[in-house]
Specification:
It is built from seven helices and 16 strands. By secondary structure, the chain is of the alpha/beta class. The longest helix is centred in the middle third of the chain and has 20 residues. The chain binds NADP nicotinamide-adenine-dinucleotide phosphate (NAP).
């Protein structure tokens, strides 16, 4: 089967189209013939080598989420799954391929009215957005800032916060055009990447959902209200500086909370319940998915170049 692996970390040119054997589903797994493959910010982070400390090696097969049809089931899995159209989470590898395997606990049937392309624009990221707001304990009327809102996590977080009755839904983004698109999704205030938003910008935020990380992360502690909750969900801008914990201690008297959140820590049934509800909302048009582009699998490097150039709004999807 055709697949895309990382030959060398760094530039997208290090991605390589290769031939691999079709994977066999192990116990508790299903095999999926892919029809849509999500290109997530996490793929770019792995490819750049930002997560080198986590043990990724050359030859790594990228891709976390796909949609397609179940073609085989492993030991212990109900054969009734065969033939179903599903969304599937493949972990931190395996998705950029014509066939992949996933644990049946991380597979969800697609509702009528939701395309595979839309499912991979929402499936993984929507859950992160939901639980980030939940862990931030966002209450109606409070002010939330979504930092790095133009990706698929942020796009869903903005919609959920607006729908949940937040008093302010501010976003950071890199251009007024992207800001205008985020306003259409529910943002009330648009800030630049450093968090500046001119005289009308809110004075502070109760909850900050951060997709970006990077060197500027600690400067956002100053933008939180007393008792503010910072929830870090991503590092698309790189790791924060080593002294960021000291910077938090320096504002000790404002009782801020800093939390990391990974959807890995949410039990699979809870993740699936949230995802299933979001898929139903999206199929009804109550939650919008934003697909930046759909490209052939062999053009994965072009998808990554677009991400590195900062052109992507929403999600790029590959088709085999
Ligand atoms: N916590 C979890 O369970 C979980 C699960 C999956 C993925 N993730 C993480 O989430 C991240 C990907 O999320 P995503 O796909 O929504 O993000 P994304 O699309 O890669 O990026 C979101 C936005 O961040 C802004 N941005 C990019 N680089 C920046 C920089 N250097 N400084 C400031 N802003 C920058 C860009 O918007 P503008 O140009 O408009 O500023 C970009 O559109 C990854 O770090 C991944 O590891 C976490």
């Amino acid at each position: 089967m055709k697949a895309v692996t990382i030959r060398t970390f760094g530039d997208p040119a290090g991605l390589e189209v290769v031939d691999l054997p079709e994977p066999e589903p192990g116990p508790g797994q299903v095999r999926v013939a892919t029809e849509a493959i999500g290109v997530g910010g996490v793929d770019a982070v792995i490819r750049r080598g930002t997560l080198a400390g986590y043990g990724f090696r050359p030859g790594h097969l990228l891709g976390s989420e796909v949609a397609g049809s179940v073609t085989a089931v492993g030991e212990g899995v109900d054969p009734a799954w065969t033939g179903r159209r599903v969304w599937a989470f493949t972990g931190l590898s395996g998705g950029y391929a014509e066939h992949t395997v996933a644990a049946v606990d991380d597979v969800l049937p697609l509702p009528d009215g939701l395309t595979g392309v839309d499912a991979v624009a929402l499936g993984g990221s929507g859950v992160v957005a939901h639980f980030a707001l939940d862990r931030g304990r966002l209450r109606p009327g409070e002010a939330v800032l979504v930092r790095g809102a133009a990706g698929s996590i942020g796009i869903t977080a903005v919609q959920l916060a607006a729908r949940g009755g937040a008093g302010v839904v501010a976003v950071t983004t890199s251009s007024p055009e992207r800001g205008a698109r985020l306003r259409e999704l529910g943002a009330t205030h648009v800030l630049d990447r450093s968090g500046e938003g001119g005289p009308d910008a809110p004075a502070g935020y109760d909850v900050l959902v951060d997709v970006v990380g990077g060197p500027q992360l600690p400067s956002f502690f100053d933008r939180l209200n007393p008792n503010g909750r910072f929830v870090s969900v991503g590092v698309v801008g790189g790791q924060p500086p080593a002294d960021f914990g000291m910077r938090l201690m320096e504002v000790f008297r404002r009782s801020l909370s800093f939390a990391t959140f990974s959807s890995d820590t949410v039990p699979a049934p809870e993740r699936q319940a949230v995802r299933s509800a979001q898929f139903a909302d999206a199929a009804r048009g109550d939650l919008r998915t934003v697909v930046h582009d759909v490209l052939p699998l062999e053009d994965a490097a072009a998808a990554h170049r677009a991400m590195d150039a900062g052109e992507v709004f929403g999600r790029v999807v590959l088709t085999p």
